[in-house]
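Human: Here is a favour to ask of a fellow structure person. Comparing notes only helps if you start from a blank page. Give me a protein, with the fold worked out from its sequence. Please set it down just below, with no commentary around it:

Assistant:
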Amino acid sequence: MRARLRKRHRSERLFRRAGLLAISAAVLVLALLLGSIVTSGLSAFRQTQLLLDVDFDATVVPPLDGLQAIERERALVGTDLGALVRNALRREFPGVHRRAAVRQLQSLVSSGARSILRTMLVDDPALRGHTTPIWVPADDDVDLLQKGSTKRAAAVDARRLSDAQIGWIDALAARGRVRTTLNTTFFTSGDSREPELAGIWGALVGSFLTLAVTLAIVFPLGVAAAVHLEEFAPKNRWTDLVEVNINNLAAVPSIVFGLLGLAVFLNLLHLPRSAPIVGGATLALMTLPTLIIVARAAIKAVPPSIREAARGLGASPLQVLGHHVLPLAMPGILTGTIISMARALGETAPLLMIGMVAFIVDIPGGVGDPATVLPAQIYLWADSPERGFVEKTCGAILVLVAFLIAMNGAAIGLRQKLEKRW
């Protein structure tokens, strides 16, 4: 007996050690994954800028005095504001004359500098004819060099900047005309072909609108279906068939729901492609079975004595449900809803099928406007050949992971705060 007891204790210790080893391996892999993403993505939140003394030449900039803001924008259409940037660079390096060298010099500044100058002129037309120091975004290759992603000691064919360009950047840095600051563009603009101008704001707005449509559809339908199946539906073969189908639908791959959304919402109902209303409806189809299962479990967890006591006091079945069962089951239902929304936020495959992976620059203004979502934006950037999009991809992943952690944390906190223990 003692030998068997020692053997049993030894097996138990080995099992515990195996469990700790498995948990340690999982934590290590997670730490390596998050560490690599954080290391590559933190630089996306910083941006390199160059200080240029821009001369708003009156021969280039048309008269803007006395015009309204909209009229000033129209007057600047067709104005070569890029010439002002090029002239500012030429004044910094007057010795650059050859055409190839001039092009290399001009490529140090992002094309977004023109938009900055246009905005400044619209806001303050008195700048015309004056010289003003302005911080403008650097090109993505310059940005990568300043952040250390591009090695200065690398061979010329291994980097996109020439020795002359690196020398010009160092000269500007020695004059105090190069800085690395918070990349507000990353949080306030939409997608762009230029890495230094690309942002996640459009994808965030698209994700919010899509989740809003999903929640508006899935919550009332899911709770109503769970209440009917758990409280009112008779127990027969038809009910059993419905329950089996709901459980099966919860395990169906998400891309199948994308095909369903493509066939029903786009081909049959002719709803707008790449719109949050279509994406939200498709994600609602995907999350509805899961929410029904979670809501049924929460309703079933309410003790039968609560129902019996309410009926004993003369409450009708609807009063029992509305006054007692649903309020007690709501913490579990809300937790399941938040977790379902977190899953919908991270889905990409269903949205690829309905066109929400398109290149969209404008910020969507409603559920019917073309839009993309954050996972689809990450997919687009990860597939881009530009090296500057690598850090943008990792930065967007960090934002997405932060939202998922926040939503799951909110679900856990809500459940702990509202849950009743019997």
Q: What stands out?
A: Strands lie at 46-55, 131-137, 178-182. Residues 140 and 404 are 29 Å apart (CA to CA). The mean pLDDT is 88.
